[in-house]
Amino acid sequence: MKKIAVVCNYVLRPDRIGGMDRFYQLYNQKLMEKEVEVDWYFTNYTPFDFYKGMNIYSANGGSVEQLFLTKNVSEQKAYNTVVTHFTELCTSFYKECHQLYPKANMIAVDHNPRPLEGFSFKKRIKKRIAGFLYAKYIHQFIGVSQYTVNHILNDYGIFLKKKTQVVYNGIDTNVFAKRIQPNKNKFIVASHLRASKGIQDLLKALSLIDNAILKNVVVDIYGEGPYEETLKKLSKEYQLEKNVFFRGSSANLNELFCEYAYMIQPTYMECFSLSILESLSANVPVITTTVGGNLEVLTNGVNGFVYEPGDSKALGIILEGIISDKKTIKEETSNLIEEEYYLEKMVSEHIKLLPCI
């Protein structure tokens, strides 16, 4: 039986079932149908029903790359292919994988966003050296957007062009309830709470809007992270406690998106956002920045509104325009996702990458 390993620097949680979780599950199912056995390696996992039937190894919060290497040094599993998600590219891990499995095909999928201001000169040099040393052990580089592919080549070397391609993220459009007539003053944020997600800019933008306009506005923020307390303090400082609510993590965002008029994603760095796809699938337009692959799926004024990252004033103008009925999105936003960015297409294209199929 053909056998592959998938190594993911990703934590599996029952209170956060998102697009990648659905990808992992369907990918596993489709490969089993083709009589391909899959071993999964994750950063952390405590068993729950969504992942029932999958063969999962957990690093228990440690290094998932080290888990894979240690386990396979002792057990010598016979893998035809090793696929990585969310790991750093071009590290010694790939060389060690090659030493363990010299005949296995190595596929590295890059989901990692780049900083808005770019890497430091020192880090750019280190990445070029890493590309020279370790890229030869990776047979295929996959970017989740054209933006990502461009940065793989920029970071590690243009010589990788022949073995680098785009496979766009996709989502399960069937699980998203569609927006019909939501309250136009109700907005959702679905994000990890860290500084690079720019939610502090959203709070600043709200503080710039006249109180008479703002009084009926609700912004629900779903997510957790190290910046949560800072954001709560800023919300209090800006006197937004009657407008902004921190809802924590939710496993049923697919049912919640449709209750909102817009999703706001004021991010500084992004590859190709699953949250944007999910929101659009629910027919909820998106307000976001021009970073990463956002403009590969969003058209300003058609399925959302875009502005330059960090520009709280511009975001405030967009929000005020929506609240005062001067700005609106009239077109269905779900059609594009159902036609181009659906989960079955993503899974199919990832399976096509496997030489053992």
TrEMBL record:
> One MF term in GO for this entry?
glycosyltransferase activity
Domain Glycosyl transferase family stretches? 173-328
Cite the Gene3D superfamilies for this sequence: Glycogen Phosphorylase B
Q: Which SUPFAM superfamilies match?
A: UDP-Glycosyltransferase/glycogen phosphorylase
Give the protein name, as stated in the record. Answer: Glycosyl transferase family 1 domain-containing protein
The scientific name of the source species is Wenyingzhuangia fucanilytica
